[in-house]
Specification:
The protein is an alpha+beta fold. It is built from 5 helices and 7 strands, in the order E-H-H-E-E-E-E-E-E-H-H-H. The chain has one domain: Alpha-D-Glucose-1,6-Bisphosphate, Chain A, domain 4 (2-Layer Sandwich). It has a 7-stranded antiparallel β-sheet with strand order 1-7-6-5-4-3-2, sandwiched between helices.
Length: 192
């Protein structure tokens, strides 16, 4: 079973995907990710990875997150690993709404914590993802304000557009985990 968090953002879907496409920003919006070690040069191409650490010093777990699907400005699907804690599939769907957009983040454990009864992990995961989507909103809305300022000749931002990565493919394990996480797809689409 997946958990889902939904939030209205005061920015465009492209502003959201500009943040999602910058792998170095991952620990700025993902609760629990404490630092970045590397970002594959072709990120956010499907199959590309970002290499991060989880936890807080001195207890850090080094692992990675792989892009399984990159279809801006509508959807991404990630397969995140967290060492002995297991793996999860994260689906983020973005839909325009008026001058802004609605962002729905769904996460489904597919290994490790997913084998623990749902009533134990789901409330904590939901709280974590509520903060995660809030952080993503702050960054995307900040990009929106920076873009508006740049268009008015008042400054520039680090990534003004959504990246267009080269063709790529997720590895077989990540693809299998993503296929197993059908609840995350339903939750991200608002069907659960």
């Amino acid at each position: 079973m997946a958990t889902a968090s939904v939030r209205l953002f005061d920015c465009t879907p492209d502003d959201v995907f500009a943040v999602l496409g910058d792998g170095w920003l991952y620990p700025a919006w993902v609760v629990g990710a404490s630092r970045m070690r590397a970002v594959d040069p072709d990120w956010p191409a499907e199959g590309a990875r970002i290499h991060h650490s989880l936890g807080a010093w001195p207890v850090l777990i080094d692992d990675d997150t792989q892009m399984v699907e990159w279809t801006p400005p509508h959807r991404i699907r990630l397969r995140a690993k967290a060492g002995p804690l297991g793996r999860a599939v994260v689906v983020i769907e973005v839909r325009p709404r008026g001058d802004g957009c609605v962002v729905r983040l769904a996460e489904e454990p597919v290994g490790g914590a997913g084998r623990v009864p749902r009533f134990l992990w789901a409330p904590l995961l939901h709280l974590r993802n509520e903060e995660t989507i809030q952080r993503l909103r702050f960054l995307a809305e900040g990009r929106h304000r920076d873009r508006d300022a740049r268009e008015n000749g008042e400054g520039a931002d680090a990534r003004p557009t959504v990246p267009t990565p080269p063709e790529g493919n997720a590895d077989a394990d990540a693809t299998a985990d993503a296929a197993e996480a059908t609840d995350a797809d339903d939750a991200a689409a608002g069907r659960a």
